[in-house]
Amino acid sequence: MGASWHRLRALIRKEILQILRDPNSLVIALLIPIIELFLLGYAATHDVRNVPLVVVDADRRAAARELVDAYRATDAFQVVAVVASEDAMREYIYAGKARAALVLPPDYTDQVRTNGTATVAFIIDGSEPTTATRVLSAAQLIAQHHGAKLQQRRLERMGVGSPQPPLEMRLRVWYNPDLKDAYFMIPGLIGTILYALTSVLTANAIVRERERGTIEQLIVTPIRSWELVVGKIAPYVLIAFVDTLEVLFIGSVWFGVPIRSPLPWIILLSGLFLISGLGVGLWASAMAHTQQEAMLLTWMTFLPAIFLSGFIFPIEAMPKALQIISYIFPLRYYLVIIRTLLLKGVHLQALMGDILALMAFGLFIMAAAALRFRKRLE
Question: The pTM is what?
């Protein structure tokens, strides 16, 4: 056991020195998570903010201006122009200068004053359906709120007090009361960054030895195959844990994502997920002959995992066949675990199904990759 530990320590030391001789790769490995976190943390959002809105105001009276001001008062819309005709409005939407349009008829004020139902049109650019759906919801909420104010004024003019509504709904949102996208995206980024870095770095590290011809020198030494595997991947495990702590710290301090579970639980289960990423990288290295092939094999598993893990799209909304396929990707289980730990702070027993599935997948892929790698060595 002592000799085995000395051989393993020497190999790990060799790998660390090799990483330090290539400081550019080390810096990239440590900076990529930070860069991706800021880019996706701000860019990957479905929040409706500052949507360019063009207004067709054919009425031009105080009541019409009041409705327009109701849209101006929110951060959901930014009124870029007030025009007098629908032709001018179309030019704004065609040119991409506006994503939505509010159209007020010439008799809007008369409709409001005669206690009738004032009709306005709201036009949305549907080229981006997800954004269009949220814009539609925001526009309807503003219109309903303004309509309630108009109704209140009518009742006051008629000398009628405020009637009690027949139904009152009090909404409460748990875990993310402000419905911030960052609370959903940042935990997901932890999983995707860990998976990408561990698999890519591990695959390249071993294939690089084969390309340089140095792996044959390692084979003729007394070192065992499992020691070679552990020694090669151990430094990258350390880098992956550093990346995890980076993302957690920045996500909590900068984006305000809560950490409602004990940090040791998060680190332990992240380490369990790392086994899967390392196994995929080891498998790619055993199958590939060059770094380019290893990268291609790794990305062949990474891209489907992104789309089928629930990172971007809800799994429940996918076709049944894709839901079944998603079970073969460990990222699916980890995203459930990390989001639950950060946002809900539940006990581990509630996550036991996902934890066992993640453990089973990690052990399977690592064992299969190690056996394949051993055959390549022999």
Answer: 0.70
